[in-house]
Amino acid sequence: MNILIIGGTGGIGLAIIQQLLIIKPHANIHATFFRHQPQYQHSQLHWHHLDISLENQIAALAKQLPQLDVVINAVGMLHTAKHQPEKSIQQFDVAFFQTNIQINTLPSLLIAKHFMTPLKTSPRSYFITISAKVGSIEDNKLGGWISYRSSKAALNMAIKTISIEWQTKLPHCCVIAFHPGTTASALSEPFQRNVAPHKLFTPTYTAQCLLHLLAILTPQETGQFLSYNGNILPW
Ligand SMILES: NC(=O)c1ccc[n+]([C@@H]2O[C@H](COP(=O)([O-])OP(=O)(O)OC[C@H]3O[C@@H](n4cnc5c(N)ncnc54)[C@H](OP(=O)(O)O)[C@@H]3O)[C@@H](O)[C@H]2O)c1
């Protein structure tokens, strides 16, 4: 089994790798890093440097990995050194919005474009992208975080659209948008104070939830937005 984790140095991405090495001891795991040199090493883990905002780098990686059973995109951003997510439209900044789209939306489109062929060679494959419930338009009761919400809503539309196309082109592939719940990581760090302790998940718990879903989902369940507990979320 060949598995690719994009964003393997992130809180959730690294936990997925570590759990996979336990539950799939014979799998070949490929993972990508960007700014953080990976510290975690294992004989079945192969690291690749990747800037997910550059299509030529994604295309080159896909050529190196001609057969994959699972691709998980765990890349994402919520804040930068200069910008926190907006509380008001008055804080809206074009460059920050574009960065959200570049890191949260475009990568899954480009990954699907270039990894369609590697995923086609597997008798049953999975393309999972980590989204966020705040990207659900129907679920939006609070407002705020307009760039992050918009980038994840656009991501969700992309995932749904890809899943429909692949029902005929890759009928054995299950395409899912996954909501991890609030998980302790660098991304959520500035917002953890207001989260009840039992609602702040460890990356290990979140990874176990995702991998549990991976074990039970079939291609017939493609095109869903699923929460960590398996609940179907409204797009
Ligand atoms: N944590 C939460 O509470 C939470 C809640 C809802 C949804 N999510 C979603 O879950 C996903 C994972 O989040 P996380 O909490 O694990 O975040 P994180 O710890 O901040 O990890 C982010 C990952 O994205 C990678 N990355 C950022 N820019 C990149 C680029 N240009 N090219 C390649 N890789 C890049 C980082 O690589 P380097 O570190 O090597 O640069 C890192 O591996 C995100 O999509 C996030 O929106 C998280």
From TrEMBL:
InterPro entries: Fungal_SecMetab_SDRs, NAD(P)-bd_dom_sf, SDR_fam
Signal peptide: none
An example Gene Ontology molecular-function term: oxidoreductase activity
Annotated GO CC locations: cytoplasm
Pfam entry (one): adh_short
Protein name: Short chain dehydrogenase
